[in-house]
Every structure is written in C-alpha cells, then in structure tokens.
Predict the 3D structure of the following.
Amino acid sequence: MGWLRKRRQGARGEGGAGNGAGGETAGSEAAVDLENLRRRFDGFRALVESNNRVLSVIGDMEEKAQGDFLFDIVYVRRSIETLRDGIGDIIERIIDLGGEPYETLRARAQAIWNQIDGLLPGGRDVLPGPFVLEFARIGRVHSASVGGKNAQLGELRALGLNIPDGFAITTHAFQHVLAENRLADRIHETLTELDIRDQEDLERASATLRERILTAPIPEDLADAVREAYGELTGDAGPEPVALRSSAVGEDTLFSFAGQYSSFLNVPPGEILDRYRQILASKYSPRAIYYFLSHSLEEANLSMSVGCTRMVDAAVSGVIYTRDPLDPEDAVIQVHAIYGLGPYLVGGVLTPDVYRISRDSNEILERAVHEKGVQLKLDAGNGTREMPVPEELRGRPCLDDRQLVELARIATRIEDHYEHPQDVEWAIDGTGAIYMLQTRPLRTICAQPSFELPDMSDHELLAEGGTTICPGAGCGEVAHVSGEADLAPVRHGSVVVAANPFPALAQVLDRAAAVVTEVGSSASHMATLVRERRLPTIVGLVQARKRLPAGTEVTVDASGTRVYAGCNTELMQARRPEYDLFQDTAIFDLLRRLLALISPLHLVNPRDPEFRPERCRTLHDITRFAHQRGIEEVFAYARSLGRRQDLGVRLKTALPFPVMILNLDEETGHARTKPYDDQSIPSAPMRAFWDGLLAEKWPFAYPEPARLRVDRRSDQGLPGEAQFTESSFAVVRREYMLANLYLGYHFTSVEAVLSDDAARNLIRVHYKGGGAADKRRRRRIGLLEELLDRMGFEHTVKSDYIDCRATGMEREPAELNINRVGRLVMLTKQLDMALSNDRITRWYIEDFARKLELDRSKVFPL
Amino acid sequence: MENLTAGDIMVPLDLYPHIPYWFTVRQAIAEMETAEVETDGRRSIPRVVLVFDETYRLMGFVRRRDILRGLLPSYLLEDADEGIRSTYDIHVDPNLSDVFAAEEGDIAEQANRPVSEVMNPIVHTIQVTDTLLHAVREIVVNNVYMLPVLRDGKIVGVVRSIDVLHAVAKMVL
C-alpha cells in the first residue's frame, strides 16, 4: 500500500511541478506508453502464436517419425515450409521486441536451414546463375545448382583429394533448355496422367518425353558457354575426349537414384552437346520416372546437371564402402575392384574382387578374388569397348596391398568429413594415380541374426550360395528376366531371377518378393536400390536360373543365402524383424534426419549463461529462446513504465496486497479508471487464478499485541520489508493473463491462455527465490515440481528456480489447473521456512496433493 | 573448554524447525511429527517450533503443550490468557467433554487455528558470543527449555537445555 501511495504521490508531484497543461501532457504520454506497451504485447502474442504453431508441427513430425502413420515427401515439404514461416516470424518478432541482441538469430536459423535444405531432395528453387561452373568453384552447398554428384566432387577436391579436372553444366542450364523450348508444362501434364504401375503406359510416357528433349535445340548462349568451358579445360593440349556424367539434384540425399541416369565416357568434342541432351532425356527413362514417382518426389524439383570431366583411362576401378552395409558397426572398409572402367562393376556385369580392410589398423582382413575375364576400355577416340583381360591377370587380385591401404586411408578421410558412411566410386589410371569419381551416403542395414528360425531340414533345398545384398526372406513364383523386354509380364509377388543385376531391374523391384541373380556384388547400383526397399536379395548365386525354373514356387532366404522349394511363411515371419518395411524407407530416414536438426531442445534453462542465440542448434532451440526472451522484453518494458506512472487499473481485492491490472482489450482513450474487484476481473484465466489465491486464506491473523511482548528487534529480519509487496501486476485479455506476483520473498510469474481451443491453451509458471536458507528454498521447488508434475506440467528446475508449462489442455482441466496454480502460489507462500527436512517436505507434498485433489487417478490426462 | 560459547553449541537455524505465524496448529504438529534435529550424529524430536513473520523476524515459539492446549475447545479451558501455568491448573472437570460431546471433528477444526494464536512470545535470548555458563544461567533462572541465539540482532540458531547438557557432559564425564 505504501508503495502504491508513494507512486501516486510521485505522479501527482510531477503533475504539480508544471501547470495544468503539463498535467495533460503527462496524460497523453501515458496514453502513448500504453499504446506502445500494447503494441509490444500484440507482437509478443503473435510470437507466442507462431511458437505454438511451430511446436505443434514439430510434435506432428515426431509422431510421424514413430512410424505408425504413412506420409510422403509432400507432407515433409509442407511441414518444413510451415516451420520456415513460423521460425522466420518468431525471429522478426523478437528482434522487433528486443532489437539488436537478437539479430544473430537470423544467422543461426540460416545455418540450420542450410543443413535442412541439404537433406531435402531438390527442395530448392533453381535460381538464375551461370550455365557452367568449374569444379574448383564448387562445394557441397552447391548441390541445388550442380546436382549431387558434381557438388560432392567439388567437395572432395576442396578436401585435397584427386578428382578429374572438369566443370558442371548447371541445373540452370537445364531449366533454360526447358524454358526456351516451352517443355515444362508438357512434361508436367504427361507425368500427371501417368499410371506408373502400368508398364506400357510408363514406357509410352517415357518415350514421348525423351523424344521431346532429344529434339529440342540447345539454346545458342548455353552452347557457347559449354564450348568456352571445354576450351579452358583442354587448353593448349588441343581437343581430347571427355566424360559426361549425370548429376541430378537430390541424388546425394537419401534418395540414391543409383544408376538411374545416363553417363557417357570418352565423348569427342563434337558430340558433347548431343550427349548432354541424351543425359537430360535420361531423366525421363522409364526406370527414372518410376523411381521418383514411386518415392513421391516432385518431378519439378528434380533438376538435372551434368558433369564434364577429363577422361580417366582406368586400369582398375571400383567402389569403396566405408562400412559394411550389412554390419555398419564393424570397423571394416570394403573395397570392390575390377579391371578397366567402372560401369562393368556398378552395372553388375562382373563379380568384382572384394577386399575387407580394418579401419583401425588398415590391415587387409580378407581378399575374395574372382575371375575377371573381360574389361571395359576406352575405344580409340570414341566410346568404350569390351576387351579380354590378359590370361595371366584374370584370376589375380587387381589391387596390391599398397593401393588398398591408400584407398582405405582415403575412405576414412571421406567418411570423417561427411560424418556418415559413404559409397565412393574411384579409378586408377595407367600411371597409378588414384581418382575419386563420386561419393554419396551409403545406405546401411543392421541385420539382427538372433532370431529363432524354423527347422528347414525337411524342405527341399534348391540352391545355396552367393552373397546377401539385403536380408530377409520372401516367397513367390519364379520369373526369369534377362532384359528390359522381360519386365512387363513380371507379376506382383514374383521372385525375380536374373543373370545379372542390370539397371532396368529397378522397374520391377516394387513388384518383386525377392531377387536372385547369378553374378553381381553388393556394390552394384541395384544393390543400393534393393536395400532402399528392404527387398530380400541374393547375388552371385551360380546357375540360379537353371536351379530355379520359371513358374515354380520358391522361398528365398536371403539372410541365409538359400532357396527352398515351396512357400514357407514361417521362415518369412522369422526373418521379418530383420527389417521394417516402412521405417527404413528413404522417406522415413529423411524425416528422422530432418528431425535431428529440428526437435532436440538444448536451451532449457533461461538462467544458464549458455542461454544465448549462438547456442541455438535446432529450430526448437530458436523458438524456445525467442519465446522466453519475448516475455522478458515485454515485462522489462512494462516495468520501466511502471516506475514512472500508474499503469492500468487497481484491483480491489480481499487479498492485502496491491495489484495493477492492465487490460489490453480496452480501447485506447477509453481507459477504465474504476478499480476492478475480485468478481469483475476482465480475464477468464485471471479469474480462475484469482479464485485459487482467494481460496487459500491469506494470513489476516496477525498476532495480538499481547502475544508480542517481545522487544521486536527491528533489524532482526531480512532487509527491505517494503519490497515484499512491490509491483505485483497483471497484463490481461479476455482469454489471457500474465501475472507477476511478489509474495513474501519469492517471485511468481504465471502466464495463462484459457479458451475453447485446447491447442491455444497454455499455463506457464515461473517460480523463484525465497527468504529461507538455500536448502529449504530448494525443497520448496522440489515440492512444486512434484505437484505440478502430477498436474501434467513439463518443468525444468535449477536450484530454487522452476519453470514449468502445460499446453494443449481442454478448457475445463486448464481452468482447474490455473485455479490450482493460484492455490499453490498461496499455499507455498513462505513455505520454504517450514521445510527443515525432506520428511516434512514429503508430508506437505501429500497434504497439498490431497487439498488440490491430485490423487494420481484424478489427474486429467493431457 | 571454558571458552565454549553459545555459538559453539547451538543448533544452527537452518537445522531447526520453524514456520511462519499464519501457519496452522496442524502444520506445527506436522513439523513436530516429522522434523528431526540432528546434532553430533544424534537425532531428537523437536520440542519447540520457532515462529517467524514474513520478513523473517522471530516472533515466538510453540511447544508441544501449547499445541495440545490449542486443540482443546475453548469451553474446556478457563482463564485462557493466563498463559503457561494455566495449562497445569485445570479447574474444569475434564469429564465435561463427554457432556458436551466433543468429538474428533472438533479437534480437527481447532487444528486449523493459526499458530499465532497459541504461540508464546520470545522473552529471553542470548548472543552468539555468550559463554556456556551464561547459557546455563539463562535456562535455569528463566526456567526455559531453549534460547534463541542472536548475532548482530539476527537469529542464527537455538541453544536447548540438551545442548548445554551435552557440552557439560563432555567436561565432567
């Protein structure tokens, strides 16, 4: 009361110092201040709305990541865009409220978005840019303009590894080709009408689209740019053939597109533009269309870049898996190698040598050397040609120990850089120089072999051997395929048996129950694709076609590399837990990786010195940070006003401490001056809160003087008696309250939204301090923690500070809990004093739980 | 040993049960029932709970018998304001309680009285630097069970008769 009087006097004093006009000025200043405060509050409320929206999207994504709901890339994109809007809004709002200290949030958010966009397949609009970019100027951040393969090559180059010199023809160039020839709409139309499950329809659409691209002229400005870049690449050495490789946007993400697009080796200068167009057209090959449509990837976002490099005349080439894809925990590097050029390996023509090298000691643990009768070599001047491998080399390892150790060293370096297992293509030329040709994330599967398998001894074993590419078991009717023409008749649920894992097999993978091939290795493109689909697959099972006649029913035990006659559902069931059909698809993996950048909360405690914008590592951190600081900024402003003038209207209450209410719903210029009373509080949540405070008695029973015969030493207590009723105030709206109370020595701030919309409802309590010894204050916080926990609040506690919140409650339980918070605030007033030990604390917890009807059974579910 | 002061033998305030004045008799009972004072590895049930005001000034104390007295319906008490001695000199026949059919419910109701209604004022205190002998004298002469110990005018602990006795025991045994 003294505080209030003093303030009033202060206000009068100011007015009295001037004349009558001065008084009016003070009044209009007050109106301006109020208007400013209201504006800030509106900003803060909008921040809270965005915060809630962001949190609800994050919650939904987390739920989807549990694997119980289906979703597609459209869902992921939409969620990401909602987050982008929300986070952007939150950051601008907090900067508006608090200014410059918060501007670093923009950079923090941008850094997180860059990572998120890097995971999304082609989520980025193609911005106008150069038609060509040298590798020297490319890093992985450029994948939107140069595609995955080129971007990673630039990254490897920057890492100091050897790559062939070259340049990228950008996605912008591709868009230019489409735009100049007015193709974008026609492509979209054709794809929209397409039924990808209909093989003939797929082939027809593909043929139409490829024809359109192949007949479209390359715009002259683009052709000039390519010629100029080629001239710079070859320099004075004169014309030489180059390699042209597809580099699609998104292929460096979890969507592999392995081997879906064309590449051309040994291309003479005069054919570069034609080959370039062919690669663009391969974006619409049946298997590529099938791939992106079946993964719900939006065609329009999948742009195509092409890499143009000097030819590496490979003596040996191959693939490194920086981990064993079926046992990624094992510290082993796998090197697959053949003589000649790489396509005979990744295309599944040959069974390569496979070496296993210890990651730690670089010791060569295992060499599986295969007969390599042929190799792919550069033809004189143009293209490639199959040639026999000299007799004496066929059965020998194509890599020596020194080369293996060098490759292992490079593999470790690359994996360390990407912090993820990698699938690396490489080549060694005639001089022994090692070139990196590509790197992308390696898809791994953790097979868990510890399952009870049924006794198969009385089942006829048809074939045994080969290599597990993807574990599991599947049964169906055998379908033999040896080329693209055999694909259309393959029925759903077939066991596909092929001579080799040729790339077009991709089109039937979704119809297959299992795949068996006679040659091949785990390093082929098809291997990547079947692992992506969790399709039980064995490669290198000799004479598979002979042993498994077309039309017979078989069970492929891919994990055990055996094929049995008939259909054995028991075995399939037993193998089932080894993989999950949905959870490990690329889209699910993508969501999980995105969530790692979105949902973990590192900034939990506002009192922590680490609670700073620079420490925001996820989007959740950003919104948490901004929300917290938003409250503080608004109140700091409100308090700065409160010292200078009366703010709001007094609450005439049965409780003996002054409270000012600022009603933000009031129209400017019609500010109420008449005090509110306990019944006329203009805010639903504040009424509930106040009823709670009133329900617990305030100590009126100050002892009669007769009982205070003592000399009450005035200096006995804690200093600053007046402080204990300092400026309690509440900022309210009809459905909102933010109340700051100083009762005794503790500070309580309660924020609440109470409406019919459960998603908006919020109760937020901050509680801090006390007059008793530290231990007792902490006991009181412990008591609050437990009771609020029983009420369904989330909380963080540090020492004698608690911050807790409940969200998403329906109106009725929310109202009850706001009321309980009011009662708790009163019940715990100076309770710290009484909490001399843990047992009494426990007694109070149970006593208050009874009073507040917090038996566990009565707690409202969230 | 002769240099022992009140500060050396007192129970520090943060180990001693205390409550604010508006707490109920019921809460004072809870404090007595659950609080244990631990000194020198010995535990004891507190016989007295200190009472403070909002600004942490010591206002008074309540003993077991004050609490019990506070639980009695007023019609069983004569001379209520006479203070401590009257609790021993009951002139009303206790069997009257049967006549008035007092029930447990009455006790529960009485237990909700504020503790300030049954507490005793602090009359005697000692300073943290006072000697053991001074503490013994204050306890004996004033016939009290415990003394608040002040430093610079602020309470920092209490010295109970048992604490004094322990200190003396170490000297003489």
In short: Chain A touches chain B through 38 residues (CB under 8 Å). Chain A has a mean pLDDT of 80. Residues 2-119+621-628 of chain A form one domain. Chain A has five domains: 2-119+621-628, 132-310, 314-441, 461-583, 648-699+722-858.
